[in-house]
Amino acid sequence: MSTIYNQINDLSEKYKLKTAENLSRLVKIKSLSLEEKEVQLELKRQMEEAGFDEVRIDGLGNVIGRIGNGKKILAIDGHMDTVDFGNLENWDIDPLSGLIKDGYVHGRGTVDQEGGPAAFVTSGKILKELGFDEDLTIYFVGSVMEEDCDGLCWKYIVEEEKIKPDFAISTEPTNLNIYRGHRGRMEIRVSFKGISSHGSAPERGKNAIYVASRVALEIEKLNERLAFDEFLGKGSVTISEFKSGSPSLCAVADYAHLHLDRRLTWGETKESAIAEINELIKGMDARAEVLNYKENSYTGKKYGMEKYYPTWKMPEDHEIVKIGVDAFEELFNKKPIIDKWTFSTNGVTINGFYNIPIIGFGPGNEVLAHAPNEKVPIEDLKVASAFYAAYIYKLAGSTK
Fold it and tell me: What is the CATH classification number for the domain harbouring 40?
């Protein structure tokens, strides 16, 4: 193992408790989507304390820390918003405790996914301590609104901030494996029109619930015949909401809609997914549409996008994956596992829309995402902080 990687390992060990303490501070601040202001200020403070060259908050509320000023750009992303707690009776501790105990940091957001940003703050500290001066710019991004609309934050960064990296790393939880893709997704509403009549004479009307129900059963069958990809797995569709309306509870329903959660495997597109639903509702007074998201961020900036999040995967022999494998082997003297996420990440925009090469590497196990008793091993935080620093040195060397 070369000297620089020994130094990185030593420094990640030296600062691992500091990394855990930084994460604990973040977890103690409730940070639902659209309500991230206070946690962003804390992340900004931590970056400044670590000696980053520049730290700022953009118009949407993303924290962007910079180290270096080279021609090539690497972005390391982690979203700072979390989901809510759910039923508190399912938690053994206060979700906002940030408790450091038994080798873990406990609480909401430790895995999904403030652990990644806490680790990359330490990576930045390691780079500054080692005097990193390679021809590379690294942006460390604590992004917002991902839980509400994955990828929206990066649409803003690329299109409004005019930052388009050459390479990216997502710090979403990977159990310290290298991930190279995941299925895409989209949110579809299928609306049905009926004709109301008095409930005592339903034959005079046309019940939208019955029509929607027949289509719902066809959607269940559609799920079984969707495409399959050897790496990403099978596409899927499920109904996550069924709503109806009528003039009264003594009337035939004249409106119904189904909300579909559609997961897209390789080769499936927005157009192909909508076409499948249109085939099921052909000849009906019904409409299928992709929904849109538009909300005010905590800064007051209104921004949005269509709720279509493309599938993406990087070839295993792509440079960005190989550099990750090399960095991992240099640090830990073993081969990493290369895999994929089950859920969706900001990669849907970074690679799915802008074709920026990206991999994932993050602390924690994704099975704890959105679950009670969320916790991340402190050792994972240490390993992740070492990996990001080593990756940066490897990438800088490869771009010379």
Answer: 3.40.630.10
